[in-house]
Amino acid sequence: MSRVTIYSREDCPVCSKAKTMLGKWSIDFEEIPLDNESAKRDFNEATNSADTVPQIIIDGKLIGGFSELTELHMDGDLDNLMEQA
């Protein structure tokens, strides 16, 4: 099974939308809240210092945020990514 990680902030409505969509699609994920310096360092390394959240990583590949997640799902590519594990 694919490993999905989502970097988020508690006060981010788009992060909540992304987590809700992953849940609706029955995709398990690890959430990493950006509430401490260690998480922020990991975020910067994993996302090449992206400046927006959420940022979603599937099996070590950065796919981007909510818009990219939705686009992958609409195109059918999200299922392909999840099946490749």
Provide an overview of this structure.
With 85 residues, the chain is α+β, with helices and mostly antiparallel strands. The protein has a single domain (4-83), classed as Glutaredoxin. The protein is built from four helices and four strands. The protein has helices spanning 13-24, 37-47, 66-75, 77-83, and strands spanning 4-8, 30-33, 55-58, 61-64. The chain has a four-stranded mixed β-sheet, sandwiched between helices. A hairpin with a 2-residue loop joins strand 3 (55-58) and strand 4.
Keywords:
85 residues; alpha+beta; Glutaredoxin; 4 helices; globular
The percent of residues in helical segments reads 40-55%
Our measurement of the CA-to-CA distance between the termini, rounded to an integer number of angstroms, reads 5 Å
Count of distinct strands: 4
The number of helical runs is: 4
CATH topology: Glutaredoxin
Shape: globular
Q: Order of strands across the biggest sheet?
A: 2-1-3-4
Structural class: alpha+beta
Domain count? 1
Question: SSE layout and pairings?
Answer:
Layout: E1 4-8, H1 13-24, E2 30-33, H2 37-47, E3 55-58, E4 61-64, H3 66-75, H4 77-83
Parallel strand pairs: 1-2
Antiparallel strand pairs: 1-3, 3-4
Summarize the structure.
The chain has 85 residues and is α+β, with helices and mostly antiparallel strands. The chain has helices at 13-24, 37-47, 66-75, 77-83; strands at residues 4-8, 30-33, 55-58, 61-64. The chain has a single domain, classed as Glutaredoxin (3-Layer(aba) Sandwich).
